[in-house]
């Protein structure tokens, strides 16, 4: 069967709910694509996204069925020891993204374009995104800004690179914005809705809404035909994202209020490290079964 007739067949097929197609809990074995993401919004299906910065962690989430992973520039503060995401380089993002792609076979991998790798304009954005696609193998990239990143989004999409937009609190602008709730008040809300529509019109396949009032995020979600991915943006977004080290209690320090902690990995790891140290100091490790004769 030719590709054309296969496409025609699927276009003619009746739109009936098919749970085997679900992004989470679906039975697919191939890698998820941005077209699957679009179809999930048409089905009204919610989905989870987690960040990942290394192959091992990504493989755990892939096996758990997480359909979309973001190699976030939050790697800057969560993985590489910087204060913020601002110092992260494209070389670093390429290396981390390649590891996450290698560790997964099912999830759509989205690579975050770091600060300074797309702000100069569309050509710089295309050059940077191309590295993430060709060298790391990501299926999509993410960049911050709606209206202000319009030309970049358009050129990337025209060039065949799916773009996830990121609005609301945009951490790469911490030095001008701080880490504050965005979209409060009528004017700011209107600007955010406009940004979301601009991103959609430019061809973005999804839009992250970070730290915006829940009612506004709900309105944006209803107004767009592409999915919204919330982080601190209420329950009505189409998808939810959390930074994996926050969600698993590994980050340490004070968490933003939007974080729900599902485990205490920091406690588990510290306990194991202390037990190992005690065993070594006290001579309990290695035991006979860990030794060769
Ligand atoms: N570990 C980690 N988790 C994240 O969610 C995250 C990162 N790092 N790095 C990149 C960005 C930065 N993010 C941030 C940073 C700070 C706040 C924050 O301070 N929020 C406060 C105050 C918000 C307000 O009321 O204005 C909060 O309590 O939510 C939120 C999100 C989200 N991203
Ligand atoms: C918080 C998410 C959306 C992000 O951009 C990151 O992890 O870098
Ligand atoms: Mg980011």
From TrEMBL:
InterPro entries per record: Pantoate_hydroxy_MeTrfase, Pyrv/PenolPyrv_kinase-like_dom, Pyrv_kinase-like_dom_sf
EC number of this enzyme: 2.1.2.11
Keyword Isomerase belongs to the record: no
Main location per the UniProt record: cytoplasm
Active-site residues per Swiss-Prot or TrEMBL entry: 210
Catalytic activity: (6R)-5,10-methylene-5,6,7,8-tetrahydrofolate + 3-methyl-2-oxobutanoate + H2O = 2-dehydropantoate + (6S)-5,6,7,8-tetrahydrofolate
Location of this chain's protein in the cell: Cytoplasm
Pathway annotation from the record: Cofactor biosynthesis; (R)-pantothenate biosynthesis; (R)-pantoate from 3-methyl-2-oxobutanoate: step 1/2
GO cellular component, one term: cytoplasm
One Gene Ontology term of the molecular function aspect: magnesium ion binding
Binding of Mg(2+), residues: 73, 112, 144
Binding site for 3-methyl-2-oxobutanoate: 73-74, 112, 142
Record keywords: Cytoplasm, Magnesium, Metal-binding, Methyltransferase, Pantothenate biosynthesis, Transferase
Cofactor or coenzyme needed: Mg(2+)
Subunit structure as annotated in this protein's UniProt entry: Homodecamer; pentamer of dimers.
Stated family: Belongs to the PanB family.
Its biological purpose: Catalyzes the reversible reaction in which hydroxymethyl group from 5,10-methylenetetrahydrofolate is transferred onto alpha-ketoisovalerate to form ketopantoate.
Xref: NCBIfam families: panB (TIGR00222), PRK00311.1 (NF001452)
Protein name per its UniProtKB record: 3-methyl-2-oxobutanoate hydroxymethyltransferase
Source organism: Streptomyces alboniger
Gene: panB
